[in-house]
Give the backbone structure.
Amino acid sequence: MTRRIVTSQSQSLRLEAASVDGYWDRLVKYVPVEIVAAWVALIPLLETLNTAANWLVFSIMLVIAFVWILRLTGSSYTQAAISAVSFGVWAFALDSGPFAQIPREPAWGSVVLVLTTLVFALIVPKESA
C-alpha cells in the first residue's frame, strides 16, 4: 500500500494502488504515526526541559513531520501539510511538551483530536502523481 492518498483511477494505476482511497483510507494516511510515536517516546525527556526547549523540540518535530510525509508521498504538499497539523493536534491531545504547561481542561485535547481527524479525512488532495 502506498502512503500517498490516491485520488483518481489513473493515479492508482501509476502508483500501483488497488483503488482510489476513500474516507477511511485518507483518515489513516493523514496521521503521521511514525512522528507521533517518536513524540510519545520523547515525552519523558520533554518533562525535564523548560518551556522554550519544549517549543523548540515541538517545532522541529513539526518540520520533520512535514518533510517525512512529503518524502513518503513523493510531493503531495497538501497531504504533508495536513499530516503536520495532525501531528500538532496529537501533541496537543496528549497534553505533552509545551502543551502540558498551558492551563486548560484536558478533555479539550480529545475533542480537538476527534473533530480534526474526522474533518481532515474529508479533504481530498488535488495533486496528481
